[in-house]
C-alpha cells in the first residue's frame, strides 16, 4: 500500500505533475486568496492532459498562479497570467523566476485585459475571487473580444451553491465538487453551431 503524500505546510502548495512536480509555491495570507486545492488541480489536469502539450493558456484571475504554473509544468506552450493585485503579481513573477519558467504576468483587471489583448487561447482558467462575482462578465468578454480559439477549453471554479451564467455555446464537459466549491470544464463551440 502506498502512503498518501504529505500535505504541504500552511502557506505553501505544490505542483502535482509534469516537469515541476513537487515544486512548492508560497501562498500569501491575503483575504479572498483561495488557491485551487491539489486534488482538484490533479483532476482538472487529468481532464486536460490530451490538449495541454503546446497549448496557449490564460490564467485570468491568477492569484498565486497555481493553475497557470501547473499548465507550464505539464507542457503548455505559453501562459499569460493576469492579476489585479500588484503585490501578488510580483510574488508570481518571483515564483516563475525561481522555477525558471518564462511567462507574461499582467497587472490589472481581468475583463479590461481581455478588451485590450489580441491573443486567442486554447485553455482559459476562470477562477475569480468569489466575492467579486466576475464569472459572467469575464465569460462574455472572452466571447465578445474573440479571445477563445474555436474549440477552446474553459475551466470555471465557483461556489457550489450557485452556478454562474455562461455563454450558451460553452458545452459542459465534466464537473465536480470539493466542499463548497464547484469546478467544471467546458468546451467551446462556435456560437452559430447547433447545440
Compressed to H and E, one letter per element, the order equals EEHEHEHEHEHEEE
CATH topology: Rossmann fold
What's the main sheet like? 7 strands, mixed
Which strand order spans the largest sheet, edge to edge or round the barrel?
A: 5-4-3-6-7-9-8
Beta-strand segment tally: 9
What is the CATH class designation? Alpha Beta
Q: Which class do the helix and strand fractions yield? A: alpha/beta
CATH-derived architecture:
3-Layer(aba) Sandwich
**Helical run tally:** 5
| Helix residue percentage | 25-40%
Task: Characterise the protein shown here.
This protein is of the alpha/beta class and 195 residues long. The protein has a single domain, classed as Vaccinia Virus protein VP39 (Rossmann fold), CATH 3.40.50. Helix content is 27%, strand content 28%. It contains five helices and nine strands, in the order ββαβαβαβαβαβββ. A seven-stranded mixed sheet has the order 5-4-3-6-7-9-8, with helices on both faces. A hairpin with a 2-residue loop joins β8 and β9. It starts with 11 loop residues before the first strand and ends in a 7-residue tail after the last strand.
Entry keywords:
single chain, about 200 residues, alpha/beta, Rossmann fold, 7-stranded mixed beta sheet, two-stranded antiparallel ribbon, 5 helices, 9 strands, disordered N terminus
Task: Please describe the topology of this protein.
Layout: E1 12-14, E2 24-26, H1 38-52, E3 56-59, H2 66-73, E4 78-83, H3 86-98, E5 104-107, H4 110-116, E6 121-126, H5 135-144, E7 148-159, E8 170-178, E9 181-188
Parallel strand pairs: 3-4, 3-6, 4-5, 6-7
Antiparallel strand pairs: 1-2, 7-9, 8-9
Helix pairs in contact: 4-5
Amino acid at each position: 500500500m502506498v502512503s498518501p503524500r504529505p500535505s504541504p505546510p500552511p502557506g505553501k502548495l505544490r505542483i502535482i505533475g509534469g516537469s515541476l512536480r513537487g515544486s512548492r509555491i508560497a501562498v500569501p495570507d491575503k483575504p479572498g486568496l483561495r488557491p485551487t486545492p491539489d486534488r482538484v488541480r490533479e483532476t482538472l489536469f487529468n481532464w486536460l492532459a490530451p490538449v495541454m502539450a503546446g497549448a496557449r493558456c490564460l490564467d485570468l484571475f491568477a492569484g498565486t498562479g497555481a493553475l497557470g504554473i501547473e499548465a507550464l509544468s505539464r507542457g503548455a506552450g505559453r501562459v499569460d497570467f493576469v492579476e489585479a493585485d500588484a503585490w501578488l503579481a510580483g510574488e508570481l513573477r518571483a515564483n516563475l523566476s525561481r522555477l525558471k519558467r518564462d511567462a507574461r504576468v499582467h497587472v490589472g483587471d481581468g475583463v479590461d485585459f481581455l478588451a485590450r489583448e489580441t491573443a486567442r487561447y486554447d485553455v482559459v482558467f476562470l477562477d475569480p475571487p468569489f466575492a467579486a462575482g466576475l464569472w459572467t462578465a469575464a465569460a462574455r468578454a472572452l466571447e465578445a473580444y474573440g479571445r477563445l480559439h474555436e474549440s477552446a477549453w474553459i475551466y470555471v471554479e465557483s461556489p457550489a451553491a450557485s452556478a454562474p451564467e455562461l455563454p450558451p455555446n460553452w458545452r459542459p464537459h465534466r464537473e465536480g465538487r470539493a466542499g463548497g466549491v464547484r469546478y467544471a470544464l467546458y468546451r467551446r463551440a462556435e456560437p452559430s453551431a447547433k447545440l
